[in-house]
Specification:
The chain has 10 helices and 5 strands. It is α/β, with parallel strands linked by helices. Strand 3 (52-56), helix 3 (64-74) and strand 4 (79-84) form a beta-alpha-beta unit. The longest helix is centred in the C-terminal third of the chain and has 15 residues, at 182-196. The chain is globular, with a radius of gyration of 17 Å.
């Protein structure tokens, strides 16, 4: 049986207890440790090497954003799942750009938490259209745009998958839109990740945004400014 080892990082002990309780409901998930700030999370990752770090965004001493940058750089095999009460670009988007596989809100249901952990473990976290558009815009504003010539060229079908990904589509939605199987979508995403040397779909989107290959403007959708 698969064992997904999880480290929970939050400065609120009650939140840590709640997240641990929800995560432990799944027999495939084992909470191996807790940390109360980003600095402690880094030290604990070095000691335990969990599969996933559930990371709060705003914490004393070292934020989740800073810790995520360190963890994903030093231990690229460790996934970071952002967990926050704040659903806004000032907190979520820098976290995703720092290397988090995805994000979730603390008021999510137990089933949503478990689904997010399994998605993070599989590198298949999907982004809502709103967050996908905000992420692209954030990366374009915060980073110098590299020419797409610096990246390995995608096939026509891979480019179509990338476009659907930038719209916040899940694997199932992409499969339906392109009239192929979910397995084919996963294969195309895997090929893109390998070509660009990135580890998950969020970083595919970040890389594409930096290269100017996708350009969604949140101003096109009034909901994105909320």
């Amino acid at each position: 049986m698969t064992e997904i080892r999880v480290l929970i990082t939050d400065d609120d002990p009650l939140v840590r207890v709640a997240l641990s309780h929800f995560a432990s409901r799944d027999p495939e998930i084992k909470v191996v440790g807790e940390a109360e700030n980003g600095r402690e999370a880094i030290a604990t990752v070095e000691r335990l090497l969990p599969d996933i770090v559930m990371m709060d965004v705003q914490m004393p001493e070292m934020s989740g954003i800073e810790a995520t940058e360190v963890i994903t750089s030093r231990w690229p095999e460790v996934r970071v799942l952002a967990v926050t009460t704040l659903d806004n670009r000032e907190n979520v988007l820098p976290m995703l750009s720092a290397g988090a596989t995805g994000y979730m809100l603390k008021d999510s249901t137990a089933d949503e938490i478990l689904q997010a952990l399994h998605q993070a473990y599989g590198g298949e976290s999907s982004l809502s259209p709103r967050v996908a558009a905000m992420l692209v815009q954030h990366v374009r504003n915060a980073s110098p745009v590299h020419t797409s010539g610096e990246l390995a060229q995608l096939t026509e079908r891979e480019s179509q998958v990338l476009h659907k990904l930038s719209l916040g589509m899940s694997n199932a939605e992409m499969a339906g839109a392109l009239h192929v199987s979910e397995g084919t979508i996963k294969a195309h995403l895997g090929s893109i990740m390998q070509k660009w040397n990135v580890r998950d779909r969020v970083q595919v989107l970040v890389t594409a945004a930096r290269a100017g290959l996708v350009d969604l403007d949140p101003a096109d959708d009034p909901a994105l400014g909320q």
